[in-house]
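Revision sheet: structure tokens.
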Amino acid sequence: MVDVNLGFIGAGQMATALADGLLRAGLISKDRLMAADISREAQERFSTVTGGTVFGEPTDLFERADVVFLAVKPHQIAGVADSLGGKIDPAKLIISIAAGVTLAQLAEAFGPQAKLIRVMPNTPCLVGEGAGAYSAGSQVTDDEVELVEKLLAAAGTFFRVDERLLDAVTGLSGCGPAYGFLMIEALSDGGVRMGLPRQTATRLAAQTLLGAAQMVLQTGRHPGELKDQVTSPGGSTIAGIETLEAGRLRGTLIETVRAATVRSAELGKGNG
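Predicted:
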């Protein structure tokens, strides 16, 4: 269990899921957990799910929390900083999950002495299966990085990367769940086309992709090697793969990650 008071500014779905994951992992107790949100509905949901303390104003939370997650929309960051009137305790660790807001922008808002971590999560964090990355500001110590890694592990798998690579993380794992959902839907459609009931086809498609992913993670083998193991000469799988290659699935996915990465960088520069 971590020996800190932990707060979330913004008590939406992601904040509530992260807090719930920390509780389930036994990393924190509910009496050391809190959130601030102007929405009464969000406050009530956070309190109901986690049992944590809720506030309406960020100032109330900042006075009590040692570690603060910024779980608000990117355009709300400046407002949060302004509400604190420049009174930021440099001992507090601030972890931002606001998409596209750089460490430099966070330092401009909260001050150059602020201890800042920028995290790029994805929506499977809501079910404890997230994938993402983080970058640490210059004021953050090794012990604080270790603390952040421990906290993020409750939501999934996260890697430390140079901040310049976070746009690529956004293009791959940040946007990636949407690509996966599209593939599951398409495979389900294929099953329905061949006579399977919709619910059965969707469950088979989702479980198949989940199982394939677990094989990559648990065996440590290259995906191509695992693919070859189920691709018999002249069999059904190679016939299906031939169709995928004809449709340029591989190249399309590569280009998809590139396009999403480029767009993430544009949004980070304010080119909406």
